[in-house]
Design goal:
Elements (H helix, E strand, L loop, with lengths): L11 E7 L8 E7 L17 H14 L2 E7 L1 H7 L1 H15 L6 E5 L10 E5 L7 H24 L5 H4 L5 H10 L21
Parallel strand pairs: 1-4, 4-5
Antiparallel strand pairs: 1-2, 2-3
Helix pairs in contact: 1-4, 2-3
């Protein structure tokens, strides 16, 4: 069972992002404030949870959370400011959209820039430690998956219905055959370098 809070008296928002390592589409972040007494043994790092259960848990989180928000930073902005800054910006935008102002932020990972005057704590693999971060990871992941499914309908060559934009062999084979598209991150290495032939 994940931890319900870091400080019992604080209004804490857990924050996480999805899509940082993808070659296409936005990076998506979520912020979630859960009740202090909320427990759910199924909520965990979204990568560990089967797709159907992820969506079920995301709906429950939206129902029980005191506040939640999701925000995107698109591929064009990612190319301008780099993926780390874009991920942090997406988290800032998600916190900004909360209808309750938290007084403490639990951030998944080891890098963050202060948001206004709110104190924060970076937690490596925090989505496997704190319930609110795991909840944010589920909302960010399911939202971004929906975005990529919609983009797949527009550009079916890359297999985004299966890889959601990650650099799989199928995705890169699609880029090699059809070229990149308007949703690809041009600052990323879209094709792996060709290996020299050894004789």
């Amino acid at each position: 069972m994940l931890k319900s809070y870091h400080h019992k008296k604080n209004i804490e928002a857990g924050c996480d992002e999805a899509g940082r390592g993808c070659l296409a589409g936005p990076v998506v972040a979520a912020a979630v404030i859960l009740p202090k007494n909320y427990k759910n043994k199924f909520i965990d790092d979204s990568k560990k949870i089967p797709e159907k259960l992820r969506y079920q848990l995301a709906e429950e989180i939206k129902h029980v959370a005191l506040a939640w928000a999701v925000a995107e930073v698109d591929h064009l902005k990612i190319d301008k400011i780099n993926i780390l800054n874009a991920s942090i910006l997406a988290m800032h935008k998600a916190v900004d959209k909360l209808n309750i102002t938290p007084d403490f932020l639990l951030i998944d990972g080891n890098r963050f820039k202060p948001y206004k005057e709110i104190k924060h704590l970076c937690v490596i693999k925090g989505d496997g430690i704190y319930l609110s971060i795991a909840a944010a990871s589920l909302l960010a992941k399911t939202h971004r998956d929906d975005v990529m499914m919609n983009l797949h309908n527009e550009f079916p060559y890359y297999g985004w219905d299966k890889n959601k934009g990650y650099p799989t062999l199928l995705h890169r084979a699609g880029i090699k055959k059809h070229g990149d598209c308007s949703y690809h991150r041009k600052s990323f290495t879209l094709l792996a370098p060709e290996q020299p032939t050894l004789f």
